[in-house]
Amino acid sequence: MPEILNIGIIGLGVMGQRMLSRMQGHARLRPVLVWDADPARLAACLQQHPELRAAYSAEALIASPGLHGLYIATPPAAHLHLSHLGFDAGLAVLCEKPLSVDFEATRACIARIQREKLRAAVNFSLASSAGLSALQLAFGAAAHMPLGALQEVQISLAFAAWPRPWQAQAGSWLAERAEGGFTREVLSHFIFALQRVLGPAQVLAAAAQYPADGLSAETGLRAELRAAGVPVRIAAQVGGSVADDNRMLWRASEAELELRDWFTNVTQTRHGELPQPALLQGAGPLAQLDQWAALLDGHSHALPSYAEALAVQETIEALLSTPQA
Ligand SMILES: NC(=O)c1ccc[n+]([C@@H]2O[C@H](COP(=O)([O-])OP(=O)(O)OC[C@H]3O[C@@H](n4cnc5c(N)ncnc54)[C@H](O)[C@@H]3O)[C@@H](O)[C@H]2O)c1
């Protein structure tokens, strides 16, 4: 693979713009070609990034010579179709989460990836976080249980408003229950971390609250799950004064690990001590980009596969559809 990796981006909303900014700081990933179905979004992006070129369509972008990878940052409905087009063109594909709520189509896509040995991953950003490394060290399959046996996991989320202020420009899909809502958009990241460490979770009971309009996304969720025999409790709501309050508590027999603010704030209470605390430094968005470069190079990487993202989505949709006990 060449030193500079040329990337085409489809979807230039909140997340596409964010990723474009992050890529400015990376030595190898170079965004070159962009496309958005909304001409105003495309024009605004080109004005802000005159170094980029616009394609005439998603298909034209994907067929352009010289690209090494495709990044898909549209809402979920287009993810699988665009992924297949990227694979047809021989591109490595990084797709935004949630991958899709169409499980049958997702399974067919995963079968193709495995059959054709394609390069594909989903952008759960906690995959490269120091917090996830700490959890693996403490509770992963290869861990020597330095904090004792895991007894319980709690996930707590609260949002002063949904969508959050920084997503005010996002499309209406984000506020609607068909594709949006905080369970898919935010809780999915923590379910990813849970399942990466403990394996598949089973939903035992769940109660989502919805507005009466029949259209808007959930405003609250309480649920009980079990993963690797460990009880997992979720309490999430739209309410309170904090724009984006998220915490995950891992309670073990000797100590507790609490991860707050997207795993950037990790605190440990009581006795046990994690080995290799150096691993808690230096990970984050740039590390995720290094993993993406590894995917493009065809090397091993820590990004979630499409199969891992499907497993997350199966848990998420079960949470949203489980009738109240
Ligand atoms: N990984 C993360 O941390 C993270 C954070 C926020 C959002 N996301 C995900 O990123 C994706 C995009 O979210 P967003 O907040 O940027 O949404 P958004 O509504 O702000 O932007 C989506 C953009 O995609 C464009 N679009 C829609 N359909 C298209 C198509 N078929 N072809 C080309 N362009 C199309 C829209 O015009 C819009 O500009 C979602 O899947 C979301 O869940 C991930």
TrEMBL record:
All copies of the Gfo/Idh/MocA-like oxidoreductase N-terminal domain together span 5-124
- Which keywords has UniProt assigned to this entry? Oxidoreductase
Q: Does the keyword Oxidoreductase apply?
A: yes
Q: Which InterPro entries match?
A: Gfo/Idh/MocA-like_OxRdtase_N, Gfo/Idh/MocA_oxidrdct_glycsds, NAD(P)-bd_dom_sf
> Which parts pass through the membrane?
none
A GO MF term: nucleotide binding
A Pfam family hit: GFO_IDH_MocA
Per the record's keyword annotation, is Oxidoreductase included, yes or no? yes
What's the protein here called? Gfo/Idh/MocA family oxidoreductase
